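Ticket #4471: structure output looks truncated?

Reporter: J.K.
Steps to reproduce: submitted the chain below (171 residues) through the standard prediction queue, then opened the result file.
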Amino acid sequence: MKYGIVAFPSKRLQDLANTYRKRYDPHVALITPHMTLKDSFDASEEEIKTVVQQLNELVSKHQPLVIHASRISSFFPATNTIYFRIEPTEQLTVFHKELQEGIPFGTEKHVFVPHITIAQKLTASEHDDIFGQLRMSGIDEKDIIDRIHLVYQLEDGSWTTYETFRLTGAE
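Returned output as attached by the reporter:
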């Protein structure tokens, strides 16, 4: 089965992301707006029990994540994906590093760029037009994420929560 580890922002930030995703993201129905902490990976039922144990240990050492969506950016020219850029704080970088080291499944497909996708699978001209418009509107939202989620993919391609973990540590 395919799994991933994500953080869902507050409802306010999700609603803001969805105002764009409804128009510009064909994956809007597959998963709630989120920040990917670990790319998708395959694991057996036995392996996922180990992942759950490792996640429980990790969250017990870390405080809730303080995030700041500071601007609208793009992964162009690699892909025509537009996103809310989350400022890479030391807290987020350390958490991500420990997560990658503690959960030895899958490989990172990209350099970690904390973000919430708001548009993807755009043509080049759509990307240029939409990105120009969205950059002018901008974003400046701060949020606190106190839970991370182990999610899995269903047969229809959508993702659902397998287990939720509260960030409770003193760091």
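Triage note (M.O.): checked the attachment and the full token line is present. The chain has one domain: 2-163.
Status: closed, working as intended.
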